[in-house]
Amino acid sequence: MSLTIADVLALQGLESMRLRAGAAGLDNSVRWPYVAENTGIAEWVLGGELVFVTGINHPRDEANLLQLLDEACQRQVAGLVILTGPAYIQAIPPRLLDAAEAAGMPLIEQPYSLKMVLVTQAIGSALIQSEQLGRSRHDVLERLLTGDYQSLDLLLHRAAQLGLALGGHWQVAQLQLEGSELLFAQDDAAQVEAQLARQHDNISRRLRQLSSVLPVLGRAGQWTLLLPAPDAVAALANRQQLASWLNPLNLRLAPLKLFIGLSAAAHPPMRLAQAQDEARQALTAARRFSERAGLCVYDELGVLKLLSGVRDRALLDQFLNERLGPLLRHDRHHGPSLMPTLEAWFHENGNLVAAAQRLAVHRNTLTHRIQRIEALCGLTLDNAYNRLDIGIALMIWRLSA
User: Fold this and answer.
1) DSSP labels for 111-159?
2) Fewer CB within 10 Å, N- or C-terminus of the chain?
3) Does domain 5-123 have CATH number 3.40.1390.20?
4) Tens-place pLDDT, residues 200-212
């Protein structure tokens, strides 16, 4: 649970603080208060701060205040608080109010007579209480999702005490952000860390909007959230909403990519551990099969459900080696050509022209490779049972890639 700008404005003793612009950002999370003592703040904030501007140490004319607003937006601070009074900043310039409103940056006016020590003490205490409550709520949800409890009734009673509305049926979503190693290979480590932190914050903020009833669980580029889904219709709506957000997001994130796996619908609290396992299986398919465009629902897995149910990994590896072992060994020694060819052929339902276009090779080259595949594996792709075995083996190979 996080402390928002709206929560700060509702704190006892801070009633004289007024939101003057940027109401669109009232749900911004506040990490800590920061008093701006320099002409600029870009070098001194990391994002999520509630920045207080007093005008004591530096003159704060309209140009400087607009500069601070611009830097606040760039660094994604939670909001700006301008202290006004007869001594330093007499009034907030209208241009600043208009710019803050346009940017959706909360801009709060605080009378100079309200002592900063009281403000920071109130916010600090609220942050501690919010963190403690958040940890307790996260712990309850994690126990439900892992099945780590002795009494479901006692855990649900604890959830109710913490304000967790768990009644009803749910769909679990698992998300994972990948590709950070590509960023580290391109840029300075410190810049990459800052960029990743901003992306994590943006994704977390959007997920909190999607899951307004329950907290979002997340760490190190991985998130779990519960979405209301009493039936298949609601689950489909959840899928469509996530897909409409994911597709344009991944275009902006490149080379990073976000993947999403969704469980089936209508899981009561007693079956949330099962729902999480379904979401993890769907997430694996979303990551391993590019044709799924980064998102998969458990109900869409098909035969992958059966493969995921095989707990003895050695059996799957043995099946893969028996069917495609010669191709795997060939590609290890000569470079990847036969396995991608076979996969493209299956993806295009045996259409040689389409498969050749997918691989950007001549059709004759593709035909020669198919003949080579059949010779190495001792089978023919015209045989339906052979195709079934090879299709399953390709799935196992992709899951283990």
Assistant:
1) ETTS-HHHHHHHHHHHHHHHHHHHHHHHHHHHHHHHT--S-HHHHHHHH
2) C
3) yes
4) 888 888 898 888 7
Q: What are the tokens at 315?
A: 């059996």
In this structure, the strands spanning 79-84 and 107-111 are parallel
Q: Nearest 5 degrees, angle CA 189-CA 191-CA 195?
A: 115
> How high is the pLDDT of residue 1?
57
3-state DSSP assignment of residue 226 = strand
Check if CATH label 3.40.50.720 holds for domain 168-308: no
* Rounded Cα distance, 145 and 280, in Å: 12
Report the run of H or E that residue 392 belongs to, with start and end. Answer: helix 384-399
The pLDDT assigned to 197 comes to 79
- Average pLDDT of the chain to the nearest whole number: 91
Q: What is the DSSP letter of 97?
A: H
Which residues are CB-contacts of 319 (< 8 A; sequence separation ≥ 6)?
392, 393, 396
Reported as a single tens digit per residue, the pLDDT across 358-387 is 999 999 999 999 999 999 998 889 899 999
Task: Break the chain into its structural domains and give their ranges.
Answer: 5-123, 168-308, 313-399
Name residue, tokens 């689950």.
235
Q: Which of 368, 184, 193, 222 is nearest to 356 (CA)?
A: 368
Report DSSP letters for 246-262, one per residue. HHHHHHHHTT-EEEEEE
